[in-house]
Every structure is written in C-alpha cells, then in structure tokens.
Specification:
This protein has 484 residues and is mainly α. It has helices at 2-18, 27-47, 82-101, 109-128, 132-141, 143-153, 158-187, 192-197, 207-221, 230-237, 240-250, 252-265, 267-272, 274-293, 298-318, 322-353, 369-382, 389-401, 406-431, 448-466, 469-483; strands spanning 57-65, 74-80. Strand 1 and strand 2 (74-80) form a beta hairpin. The longest helix is centred in the C-terminal third of the chain and has 32 residues, at 322-353. The protein is globular and about 75 Å long.
Length: 484
C-alpha cells in the first residue's frame, strides 16, 4: 500500500504528459482523480494504523544497490509510524485542496498538474523513507517540480524566487549528505532503525559536526532565523496552490527531519545543544511576528507568520519530552491546515481584486461576507483561539517546554500576543471600515471548488480543535517510538 501511495501520483503525471493536446482541458479532472484516489489510500492507511504497536507498520524492504565491498547495501526501505502516517495523510489532503485551487489554470495545464503530482510523490517519499539515502533522494526530488511550478506559473520575480529556493535547499542538502554519509559509513548501514540503536562514535568527523551539518538542512527547510529569507519570496511569487503546498507540507519536512533523524539517531548531541535551539526558537517566534506586523503585502504577511509559527515546532522538539514533541508534531499538522486556508483565501481575494496590498483593501466584508468570515476564522485559528486546532498544539508545546526552558517558553507565549495583534489588525484593515465603492462589483465565493476547499479545511481545523485525540493519539505512537 505504501508504495502505491508514493508512486500513484507518478503514474498520474505520466498519464498527463501523454494526454493528447485536444484533451488538455481534462487535465484537471485527471489530476483531481489521482489526488483523490491517493487521499483515499492515505485515509485507509491512517484508519488501519495500530496506535498501540511500537514497531514500524506497512513496511516494504528490498535491496536497491549492492555494496558488498563497503560491507552493506542500500535498501529501498519504507514504513510509517504515527508521525509519518499523520503527515502522509496531511500531504494527500492538501494536494486535493491544491488541485481544486488550481481549477482555473489555463497556462499549459497538463504540465502544471503533472509537476504537482510529481511533487506529491517526492513529499510522500520523504515521510515514508526509512533509509537515509532514500530519504535524501526524495528530499532532493522535490526541487525540480517546485522550481518549475514557481518559475513558470508564478508572478512577480518568479525566476529569482525559484532560484533562491533552489540555492538555499541545495546548500542545506549538500551539508546533510555529508552528515548522512558519515553516519552510514561509521555504522555500516543507512537503515534509520539500526542507526537509532547503534552505538555511534566519532569517525571521519565528530558527531557534533555531523549534528550541525544535518541541522542546517532542516533549519533551512523549517525555516528558522537566519535561514528564513527564501520563504517570503517563494510564497509571494508562487501560484496559490504552490503556496498551499509550500506552507502546508514542504516546511514540515524540516520539522519531521528534526524529530525522525536528529532526535531519533543523535539524541545525545541534540540534548547537548537543546538550550541553544530553544533560544533560537523563541527568537524566531518573536522576530517572525515583528516582521509580519511590518508587511504591506497580504500574501507576504502570511508567509512571515509561518516563520513565527515554525518557531513553536523547534521549541517543542528542543524540549525532548513526550508532551513537547507531541505538541511540535501537532503544530506541524495544524499549521499545515490553517496556513493552507489563509493562502486559499488570499488567492481568492487576489483573484477578485487583483491586488494584495493591504492599503488598497478595505471594507471587503460589505461585498464578500462569506470570504471575510472564513478568513477571520482562519486568522483566529492561527492566533490559537480555543476550540480550534492551533490552541491545542501551542498549549502542548508550552506544557512540554516550560519546565526545561522557562524564559524561551515565556517569550514564545508573548509571541501569541503579537500574533493576535497582526491578525486582528489585518482583519480590521482589509475587511472592515467604510464601504469602498471600488469593490462594489466584487462577487463572493460562488464556485463549488472554492466552497469545498473552505468547508473541508474549516472542518479539519475545528474538528481537531474540539476532539484532538483523533490526531494526538496517533502522533504519540511516533513520538514514543522516536524516544525509544
């Protein structure tokens, strides 16, 4: 089943490339069918996941490259625990949303949806991989479709933003590969399960150096200060659907790597530097929120808010406890759905008004009451209002980190006040105030695809906020396995 989840989108991409030119208008329907089928598979996998079983589930293993002279083989080894199963489900869900958001794409739709499906495969592979080299292969695979999706279908300085994303990611990946190779050759295996139990010692370079080499890649992807500058540019110039995927699941690859590889394989090194990571997390929360307040572009504002909210993930991981890691994992899931909804709404507003400048937008609630209400709900979820998923995630992070890091946790809590400030100020400037006759002809959300995206995302946000154990119980399985 897991290989089908990973490679079904590739089959869909090939079918799209082979689609006759005369049938190009059906590309979106084929892409939606493939994305929906993958979501069904992910749902079946998630429902069938055994929360009690501490071992990897749905595992598949075969020898990919024989390296007898080196004393070990490279394996195609995939499997899931609670953490990866949840993120795979999130990935499948958001790609359905991304397909619906792209419904009006008319520039080379076959290629667009094919690259979207290839991107889905790459991210699925990252979350399922249990071999460091397979993990690295899928990690790098997402660069190609992301670069093309931004540089061809983006806006503004799209080539610059796409290249900046690639250069940042490649720099981190090169360092990560060195760290992986040192780990693999020192233990004679790239198997993550074996590495987690191995007694690793300094080899070609010290394990402390290996820790920072791998950390660099995950810090860039998350991202945290000072590696965050690629994110606002990529978000601003990317198509709406790509922004949804970028914020919803691509950033989560960094948080997932922190937990799965650094905490799972190098826990002693992580514990040695946890206080520094906690301070960096608190600084990212505050610094990201301050930068968010200063933004004048609505999409750029949401992008900078992700820098702040990903700081909570790093803080929870740095605590190295079950509660903190569960909170960090839940924060990745909840941020994925909340920020996806915010980007969907920003795309909808831009589609109607043809501007994202906050100073030009005012009084939209008079003409777009449904869209305004949905944006406000997403904003409240982002600032952590009770009964919404963001509240549960941030609460678990704070409960898990307060005993270990009192000052960084206090600063992170203060970040919620800044979040409330920029969300409420944005809502007031964009949606309320006197009527602006410039927008008198605007239409509210009318299409089925828009309403389906909004309803499904709100349903998940409120559902997890009211009954979080549907996600938390599964995530705890992965956290406990990581902590041993």
């Amino acid at each position: 089943m897991l290989s089908a989840l990973i490679f079904l989108p590739v089959a869909g991409a090939v079918a799209l490339f082979l689609l006759p030119k005369s049938q190009e208008g059906n590309a979106k329907w084929l892409a939606l069918a493939i994305a929906t089928a993958n979501l069904v598979l992910a749902g079946v996998m998630y429902v069938g996941f055994d929360q009690i079983d501490p071992l990897l589930q749905y595992t598949e293993r075969l020898t990919w490259i024989r390296a007898e002279d080196a004393g070990f083989d490279v394996q195609y080894f995939i499997g899931v625990d609670g953490l990866s199963a949840t993120l795979i489900l999130l990935n499948a869900f958001l790609f359905v949303i991304g397909t619906l958001v792209s419904w009006r794409i008319d520039l080379r739709p076959r290629e667009y949806f094919a690259w979207m499906l290839l991107l889905e495969t790459a991210i699925m592979g990252v979350f399922a991989a249990q071999d460091l080299l397979i993990f690295f292969l899928f990690w790098e695979l997402e660069l190609i479709p992301m670069y093309l999706l931004i540089s061809i279908w983006g806006t503004g300085r799209r080539e610059y933003s796409a290249m900046k994303f690639v250069l940042y990611t490649l720099a981190g990946s090169a360092l990560m590969l060195v760290g992986f190779l040192v780990l693999g050759f020192s233990a004679n295996t790239f198997d993550m399960e074996v590495l987690a139990d191995a007694q690793l010692t300094d080899a070609a370079i010290s394990l402390n150096a290996v820790f920072f080499l791998i950390l660099a890649a995950f810090a860039i992807k998350l991202p945290v200060f000072p590696f965050h500058t690629w994110l606002p540019d990529a978000h601003t110039d990317a198509p709406t659907a790509v922004s949804v995927i970028l914020a919803g699941v691509l950033l989560k690859m960094g948080g997932y790597g922190l937990i799965r590889i650094l905490v799972g394989i190098l826990p002693e090194q992580f514990e040695r530097y946890d206080i520094y990571l906690a301070c960096l997390a608190a600084f990212s929360v505050i610094y990201g929120a301050i930068l968010t307040i200063r933004q004048t572009d609505l999409k750029r504002l949401i992008a900078y808010s992700s820098v702040s909210h990903m700081g909570y993930v790093l803080l929870g991981v740095a605590a190295l406890g079950e509660v903190g890691l569960t909170g960090a994992s839940l924060q990745m899931f909840t941020h994925g759905t909340i920020t996806a909804l915010l980007f969907v709404m920003v795309g909808l507003i831009y589609d109607r008004t043809h501007t994202r400048q906050i100073s030009d937008l005012s009084g939209l609630a008079h003409y777009m009451p449904v869209a305004s209400t949905v944006f406000i709900v997403a904003g409240f979820a982002s600032l952590g209002l009770p009964t919404m998923s963001g509240f549960v995630a941030e609460l678990l992070v704070f409960l898990g980190s307060v005993d270990a890091f009192k000052v960084p946790t206090a600063l992170a809590v203060a970040g919620i006040l800044l979040s409330a400030g920029y969300i409420l100020w944005t809502v007031q400037r964009v949606f309320f105030g006197p009527k602006n006759e410039r927008w008198a002809e605007l239409e509210d959300t009318t299409s089925i695809w828009e309403q389906a995206c909004m309803a499904s995302l709100i349903g998940v946000i409120i559902g997890v906020g009211v009954y979080p154990s549907t996600i938390v119980d599964v995530l705890e399985n992965g956290v406990r396995r990581t902590l041993g």
